[in-house]
Design goal:
Strand order of the largest sheet: 3-1-2-6-7-8-9-10-11
Distance between the termini: 25 Å
CATH class: Alpha Beta
Order of helices and strands: HEEEHEEEHEEHEHEHEH
Shape: globular
Number of strands: 11
Largest sheet: 9 strands, mixed
Helix content: 10-25%
Number of helices: 7
Length: 271
């Protein structure tokens, strides 16, 4: 039995990236097709919206490779925007039937936009949407043109949160909440570009007691801008290291007057 548990644990770890992912370049197109890893209903487990019922849209690929990243995002598939929105509505409402009326399909399978909206969605469900938060994450979601996706979700009444590493910028609707988790590259943190900094609602720094790259935080622009800072212990899948990471995070939170972010979904045993 113990052997089986160990095998399952190592299989679990093998599905994580841990810096072994391909580094992919940003894409520029109309956003009617996106590379998606998974779409699922859960609770937001991190940052300022922790505890909120949410639908996660995890996009595929990243422009960085972080050795501690425990998310799988490299086995993605291309989905039409209409399909993404339909799945989000299904999960948000608890219903499995959403009618999608397409204006017109063109040869590439994209949708003609005559009236300012990519598609018309008829809500065939009777229940009120129970999960009104949609989290667009990755990988790095800003690697892909998510402007249309954000516009459509907002038009449908969703609150949209984007989780980014802060290295790329897109002109997203003003309603979108942007949470930035800066990554240490070349042995240091780099200042966030001004156009993105002006849009960031909160920063989330990952903290490790033993990984020198993540043993402290830096001012990447948050101090002058007065942006809220969350500190989150790095999960290194080692009980002793994680205990030290937790203690070190508490010390830094006191030092910088920052807020604590725990990965609540892991504590609850959910995705």
């Amino acid at each position: 039995m113990r052997l089986c548990f160990i095998c399952l644990f190592w299989r679990f770890l093998s599905l994580k990236m841990f810096g072994k992912n391909k580094i992919l370049k940003p894409q520029n197109h109309d956003g009617l097709n996106l590379e998606v890893q998974e779409i699922f209903a859960t609770f937001q487990g991190e940052g300022p919206y922790v505890g909120y019922p949410a639908v996660f849209v995890r996009l595929g690929g990243c422009n960085l490779a972080c050795e501690f990243c425990d998310t799988e995002f490299d086995s993605f598939a291309t989905m039409k925007l209409a399909e993404i929105l339909a799945r989000v509505l299904e999960l948000a409402s608890g219903e499995e039937k959403i009618m999608i009326q397409r204006e017109k399909l063109i040869e590439e399978g994209e949708l003609e936009n005559k009236s300012g909206s990519t598609i018309k969605l008829e809500k065939s469900f009777s229940k009120k949407i129970a999960k009104n938060l949609v989290v667009i994450t990755g990988g790095e979601p800003m690697r892909q043109p998510i402007e249309r996706l954000c516009q459509e979700l907002i038009a449908l009444g969703f609150m949209v949160q984007v989780e980014t590493n802060g290295t790329l910028f897109r002109e997203l609707p003003k309603e979108v909440k942007i949470i930035c988790s800066p990554k240490n590259s070349d042995g240091k943190y780099h200042r966030i570009r001004a156009d993105l900094l002006a849009r960031i609602d909160a920063f989330k720094f990952i903290i490790s007691a033993t990984n020198s790259k993540y043993s402290d935080i830096a001012d990447v622009g948050q101090v002058g801008a007065g942006i809220a800072v969350y500190l989150q212990p790095m999960d290194e899948y080692d009980a002793q290291k994680n205990h030290k990471n937790m203690a070190h995070t508490l010390d830094l939170a006191r030092k910088y007057d920052a807020r604590i972010s725990l990965q609540m979904h892991k504590l609850l045993g959910i995705s």
